[in-house]
């Protein structure tokens, strides 16, 4: 199977969101890298990649943004520096795996996209309303806001889950998320204030996303609806709506499920799951047990 076939196969699966997000970031990085090197070899550096980057990065000028609205999404897949994309992809893989396992692919994609939008929104507000940033044209690019949303979302969902970190040992992810937020705050007066502010927008979105989900409200529904529409458009298959005439014993349950009022697990089941965590750790739980634990947290 060729490289192109491998990429096509990765995007043909509906349960492969994390790999798809990672792959899109890598492909975009490689494309920008080739363009940058090509410009250097052909022009000797007299033409840089900046004009091209400005068409996919979020400008701080709202009037220019109106002519490039797609940048609110494309910026979250653009990287130029190797270390920038490396750390983003590592964190996306580690924390995204938790979100995907516990909440599913659609929630992971929603969190990534909403994190990007929230990061861009806070960046635009800051650079147009805070005096110290006004008159300083800037562009925003990179997946950091989306990744920060996923980090904080995972920490809000599973605060006591632990990662084994070299030289530090086991560390609960709520502390990792706290450090990420504090570092972003500390960096606002540094060389990349726009990026750090965008991180904070993503962090706030990640926290609110999970908290609202625990209350039965899915902030990602608009994202999922747009994704379904685009998927149906690309596949050329219209979405079908099935209407049932008459009543059904399953109808109330289906209606409750759509509203987020899923049946709560029994207390005995929760006690057994908590005992299993104390004996073997959270990683030993099955997917069904994790879902039961999450439903119980919605009480």
UniProtKB/TrEMBL annotation:
Keywords: Hydrolase, Membrane, Protease, Transmembrane, Transmembrane helix
Gene Ontology annotations for the cellular component aspect, listed alphabetically: membrane
Membrane topology value: Multi-pass membrane protein
Residue ranges occupied by any DUF6576 domain in the UniProt entry: 266-299
TM ranges: 21-53, 73-96, 108-126, 138-158, 165-188, 194-210
Record localization: Membrane
SUPFAM superfamilies: Rhomboid-like
Lineage, opening ranks: Bacteria, Pseudomonadati, Bacteroidota, Cytophagia, Cytophagales
Protein's name in the database: Rhomboid family intramembrane serine protease
Any Pfam family matching the protein: DUF6576
């Amino acid at each position: 199977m060729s490289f192109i076939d491998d990429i096509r196969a990765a995007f043909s699966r509906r349960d492969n969101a994390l790999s798809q997000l990672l792959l899109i970031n890598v492909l975009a990085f490689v494309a920008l890298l080739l363009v940058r090197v090509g410009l250097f070899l052909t022009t000797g550096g007299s033409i840089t990649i900046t004009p091209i980057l400005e068409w996919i990065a979020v400008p701080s000028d709202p009037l220019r943004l109106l002519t490039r609205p797609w940048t609110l999404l494309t910026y979250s897949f653009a990287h130029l520096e190797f270390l920038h994309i490396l750390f983003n992809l590592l964190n996306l893989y580690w924390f995204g795996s938790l979100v995907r396992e516990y909440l599913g692919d659609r929630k992971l994609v929603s969190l990534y996209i909403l994190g990007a939008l929230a990061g861009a929104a806070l960046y635009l507000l800051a650079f147009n309303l805070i005096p110290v940033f006004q008159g300083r044209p800037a562009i925003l690019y990179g997946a950091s806001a989306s990744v920060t949303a996923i980090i904080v979302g995972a920490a809000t969902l599973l605060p006591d889950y632990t990662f084994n970190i070299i030289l530090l040992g086991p560390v609960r992810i709520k502390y990792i998320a706290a450090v990420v937020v504090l570092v972003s705050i500390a960096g606002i007066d540094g060389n990349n204030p726009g990026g750090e502010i965008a991180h904070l927008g993503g962090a706030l979105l990640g926290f609110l996303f999970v908290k609202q989900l625990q209350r039965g409200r899915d902030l990602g529904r608009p994202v999922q609806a747009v994704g379904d529409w685009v998927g149906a458009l690309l596949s050329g298959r219209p979405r079908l709506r099935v209407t049932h005439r008459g009543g059904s014993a399953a109808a109330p349950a289906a209606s409750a499920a759509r509203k987020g009022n899923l049946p709560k697990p029994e207390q005995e089941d929760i006690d057994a799951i908590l005992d299993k965590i104390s004996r073997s750790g959270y990683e030993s739980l099955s997917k069904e047990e994790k879902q039961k634990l999450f439903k119980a947290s919605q009480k």
